[in-house]
Amino acid sequence: MKPTVDRRTVDLSGYPNLVVIYLGMRVTRLTGLKTLFGFGPQIAQSVEAKPDGLLLHESMLWSLFPPHVGMRQYWRDFESLESWARSEPHRAWWQGFLRDSGGTGFWHEAYFMGGGMEAVYDDMGEDIGFLRFAPAQQARGKMFSARSRGRQPGEPSTPVPVSEEEFYS
Predict the structure, then answer these.
(1) Could you say which of 13, 65, 101, 112 would form a disulfide bridge with 123 (CB–CB 3.0 to 4.6 Å)?
(2) 6 Cβ partners below 8 Å, 6+ apart?
(3) What are residue 38's phi and psi, to 5 degrees?
(4) Does the predicted TM-score (pTM) go above 0.85?
(5) How far apart are CA 146 and CA 71, in angstroms?
(6) Among 92, 87, 94, 88, CA closest to 108
(7) Could you give the CA distance from residue 165 to residue 59 in angstroms, rounded to a whole number?
């Protein structure tokens, strides 16, 4: 049989610690449109800055009604992703969002080449992803940080943007 489909695959052996993360922001109240549109240029700037370890960033549209946009990112390793997430501008974004979600919900799901997955869903209003089939629980204790949820070894090199104590007090 002569192939008519250009069928290809990839050799990921050079990326043993690859992390793929999906992120989304969904408008839950009318005021969320301002929040959502305000983040677009900021995210574009952060990607243009080429953070260390970010291999690829792709924008995605989950739905128009309600507006729900997101991205898929490929990171060299968890340490690079965590370091970026705990630095500016992400640190400030996260601190602000956890004080006031601005009429939006935010979520991410991360998948690790070495095994494991983790996720968090904040103010989503409607279950999506893992929440649609797995038991939900509060993001407390070992479920508070991505490193512990994803069972990633080692210690973080930078402090969390918002500690569990700060968030829940």
Answers:
(1) 101
(2) none
(3) -70, -30
(4) yes
(5) 18
(6) 94
(7) 33
Q: What pLDDT is attached to residue 167? A: 87
Secondary-structure breakdown of the chain: helix, strand, coil percentages, each rounded to the nearest 5: 30, 25, 45
Q: Which residue has the tokens 């994803």?
A: 150
- Alpha helices (runs of H) in 100-156, residue ranges in sequence order: 146-149
Q: Say if CB 109 and CB 72 are below 8 A apart.
A: no
**Alpha-carbon gap, residue 111 to 132, rounded angstroms:** 17
Give the whole-number percent of the chain exceeding pLDDT 90.
86
pLDDT of 82 strictly over 90: yes
Whether residue 112 contacts residue 146, with contact meaning beta carbons closer than 8 Å, is answered with no
Q: Which residues partner with 119 through β-bridges? A: 109
Lookup: tokens for 7: 């069928």
Report pLDDT for 160.
Answer: 87
